[in-house]
Prior knowledge:
By secondary structure, this protein is mostly helical. It is 60% helix and 11% strand.
Amino acid sequence: MPTGPRPSDVPRIRKVLAVYRVSAIVTGVFLLLLCALVLLRLVFLVDIELGGPFGFLSLTPQKQITAVDLTTAILILHGWLYVLYLALDFMLWRLLRFSFPRFLLFALGGIIPGLSFYFEFRVPAYVNEQLEAAGSPATTPAGATA
Length: 146
């Protein structure tokens, strides 16, 4: 399979890259929040309850939650945000035609805390290198930064 982006895919690559950067930040923030929530759940045996009898937000033992279990909601939300992050990673892989191990490396950004913040800066640099190698200028759409 040939590697490198097709010239006709450059506008789509830039759009996907812009959304990928936002997704990397949001996924990274939720992953750090998820780590804190797992610590609360496993060490202190409490979850965050929203609107329960102990106040608007309270740390409540999991078996005593009667209102909205915010911990579980955040766990589920992070899962769906990671699916979006992974879909954008896949789209970049498909459009840029880079190696599958690199795809897997970028996919780790939503699993290893802090790595998505690194990739938010590193992936655009890699994409711009690939676009320059393919003969496309490395400029980004108006309003985006590279």
